[in-house]
Amino acid sequence: MSVGKSRTRLWFLWHSWLAMPLWAFLFFVCLTGTIAVVSTEIMWLVNPAMRASGAGEPLPASALIAAAEAAAPGGRVSSLSWGGSHMAVSARMAMPDGTSTTAWVNPVSGAVQGLSTGNSFQAFVRALHGWLMTFPVGWYLVTLLAIPLVGSLVTGLVVYKRFWKSFYQPRIRWRQAPRVMWGDLHRVAGTWSIWFIAVISVTSLWFLIYMMLFHLGMGLGGGKAPVLLAREQIPVSATAPRPDVDAIMASAQAALPDMRLRYLWLPGTAYDPATVAGSSGQVPLLPDYVRVNPFTAEVILIEGGMEAASGIELTRTIMRALHTGDFGGLPVKLVWFAFGLLMTTLVFSGMLIWMKRTARATVEAVRGVRRGSRLAEGPSNA
Amino acid sequence: MRNDSMRHYWQRGKFHLSALMMLVPLPFLPDYFSPKPIFVPPEIRRDIAVGPFPVTLATYDEAPARMPTGERMKEYRIHIRPADIDRVRGVFLRVGKPRSLRTAGALAFGNPYEREADVTVPDELGGREELWVTVEEWSGGVHQASLPLGEIFGGKR
User: Which of B18, B43, B75, B93 to mutate against chain A (most A CBs within 10 Å)?
Assistant: First the structure.
């Protein structure tokens, strides 16, 4: 065997052994991640209460809040979230028993189409995918997979010479033996997902680094103090003044006219501003936050774009957007979903190939060696 | 022979062992889907009158958590009567008597029926510390009361 050939073989062994002992776990994480990308869309299909037609003049935020609070006795709306014209507005409410409830409000008719309590399916899938519902141990277990992922990508490219041919001459022999078909599929799917695997492994590696920084006590807050109102700015009255939500929305939208509205957070304490958030398209991937004085409806501060926060926080936002594909609406999500499926297939086909070829080859090789050694030992044992 | 087949199963099966990782989230599933936590540590509750407002403090019977910044933090939940929630502008908690309203301590936030406050706890406790509760009204009135920290601290000390 030439030196080059044996080196390739070594790379190949690395490629097999990096993922194989972990394949089932990696498969699980890839699959749940793929589902997480479109978890909102899945719920939209399952739950009619989340749907809206998008036709008609939308009601002001105050009317949506009033409708939600009327549907849940004692409920106090803490935030509204707009998911696009095809979705009902979700109103999150604090309930008297300390729990929270979400009301799905039709943005045009103001009808409350449904109430959901507890954790959402989206949060569940995210917890399952991101930290196996076991924080922070699960977070480390999952993000450590970034290392074999990077390794598989690099060794795969070294092993699969002329992989770029798969771009213009993709060949999958569907009618051949399953081993051949899975092998072809693995190579073609792998080549086409190079960019995606790179994005996912780099962002996962970041999630690992991020948590390590956090646990090492390095500042992640961005160093900016939260925006608070001074006691003198708060009116004195017999009972809590209810903020004029429509005036708050109007000043936020006047401050950033081309903003695509995503959230309204009402103040969490008497000293907090109200926050209107959305993406104005100034910088792709980065949302804008408009902090508004809830009593006067004056804009206090616009935080957004590049100057939003520290380098770490900026990195966090970008990495998160790239990992989840949640930055360009449904089309980007569907691309992420498709490549997520492809990557899941890649893990599965890799395992199948290994079981069908490498395992058998190993067993045979071991058997051969043993038979050989037994023959060699024969005479001395006798 | 039997040894051989066991070895065979091991050889083939060992690479699927990582599937066991999927068992990790299982114990947490029921808790996740119930609106209120099912498995909660025991809770300590204390009632205290702060001026005209009856207040209930609650905390888990656990030692304070060590933050990555090195601080010790204890989480308290604060219940006030539903009839009072629109009269109360702020509830503040602090270990030790505040010198002024500006240093009243951690401002409680979140659900107005069950506000939450993360209180900084000194590293060394002498055992005679007091937890001070400050209630500020929308009309401007300020009321204070305190209780021994040891009564509502929890965990082994």
Answer: B18
